[in-house]
Amino acid sequence: MSKYVVAIDQGTTSTRCILFDHGGNIIAVDQKEHEQIFPKPGWVEHDAMEIWVNTQEVMRGALENANATSVDVAAIGITNQRETTLVWEKGTGKPVYNAIVWQDTRTDTICNELAKSGGQDRFRPITGLPLATYFSGPKIKWLLNNVPGARERAEKGELLFGNMDTWIIWNLTNQHITDVTNASRTLLMDLKTLDWDEEILGILGIPRVMLPEIRSSSEVYGNVGDNVRRVYALPLQGVPVAGDLGDQQAALFGQTCYSPGEAKNTYGTGCFMLLNTGETSVPSENGLLTTLGYKIGNKSAVYCLEGSIAITGALVQWLRDSLGLIEKSSDVEALANTVEDNGGIYFVPAFSGLFAPYWRSDARGAIVGMTRYVNKGHIARATLEATAYQTREVLDAMEADSGVSLTALKVDGGMVFNQLLMQFQSDILGVPVIRPKVAETTALGAAYAAGLAVGFWKDFDELRANWGKDHEWQPKMSAETCNSLYAGWKKAVTRTFDWVEK
What is the pTM of this model? Predict the structure, then answer.
């Protein structure tokens, strides 16, 4: 009998493979980073072939670390950086251009042109999304317009589009599919029909023939190696690929937020808060996204409100890689602890504009309040505080849209082991912040979806039983101090507006 479920977590900075047992415990991990490519200011790309090679290597590595074989694995779940857009040749599997990453802002002109008729919320009633450089649809249009011959080849059915989930699944099984959660991030899917919207496809000039089939988040899509013409065997040959969730929805699923009103926040490259709204899609009036939470087999789809923040963990990486203030990301907490407060500065990391709740592509990053007193410790502290302030803004919007006041926040992702950040997060929100025993909830959610599809887990109750609390932070800051700090942040944010002239 199979002992494990495998999750492939294809993220913004790395690809991981994790083996989970029936109790939701991590048995083995392997991980490889990939190059971040910045051809021009605001442009961010990935080499999709490098990512595919890394995917195979981490699959092999995780199996070796667990001393396991494909016989021990019941199913594979995929989770991925959402919105990152790739077009490749159907016949050869060769990308026609690098993957355009979700953070990339090159489609700003396209979005502005589209907004001239109907405004930024032109497609929101259908897709739940504003016009923004964040989403895949404008990126596809850019590729078709700028890669020589791409549009003609796409119309002939010679090219395929996919986000990174589709790319990995296609390489593993030769099936050209995506799930409802990833499709809901393209700006092309109708939230009600869960199918591609023909009118929007026409407006953007995207041939439907290049789009993947939209499936549920938990079903068998195919087996590894089936119908794949290769001279070598893939790792996990013959194992069913049976789960597919965008990374933030996967984290929601892994945090077992299965009831309406339950929410989680993931602290990764960006920061993403999702609130389960049940089988009803709730339109946002406060700058949030209406999106799919998950769909299990033939059951009804579950919807979410989402607050998306572009730059959180990536800001710590910037301190490390671009400024050299720290040697490794984990050093930021020690540096921040060399000072008692932020020294009066705020760091608004609008490197890719501002996402929720502002959706200002004209914004750019700023450090405000600088004096000669400020040192690198203050900058490190302001870097961490920026994540907490942005989360507070999203939570305020979420409570306004849903009418529900959050009583606690479940958190996950790499930054949740930063004690200073988590305490400040609890202080600035005024609610407990709770970290689960398994903080890798994104990969766990993908594993859960795959395991449900093949009967490795039987139902949600079994998954809920796996969840356990590891640590809880309680708010300690006075309301007066909290309100003063937050007012300073709101003022700082306005200083980033209108930097890029349209």
Answer: 0.83
Type and span of the H or E element at 384: helix 376-402
- Averaged pLDDT in 10-residue chunks for the chain of 502 residues: 91 94 94 93 94 95 92 96 95 95 92 91 93 93 96 96 97 95 96 96 96 97 80 82 95 90 84 88 88 95 89 88 91 94 94 85 92 95 95 90 82 89 95 87 95 95 90 95 96 92 68
240-246/4-10 β-pairing: unpaired
Report DSSP state, residue 322.
I
The Cα 130–Cα 119 span in angstroms is 9
351, β-bridge pairs: 353
- Going by C-alpha positions, the residue among 75, 60, 61 that lies closest to residue 3 is 75
Place of tokens 């404008």: 138
Ordered DSSP codes for 252-321: HHHTT--STT-EEEEESSSEEEEEEEETS----SSS-EEEEEE-BTTSPPEEEEEEEES-SHHHHHHIII
Structure tokens at 64: 């070796």
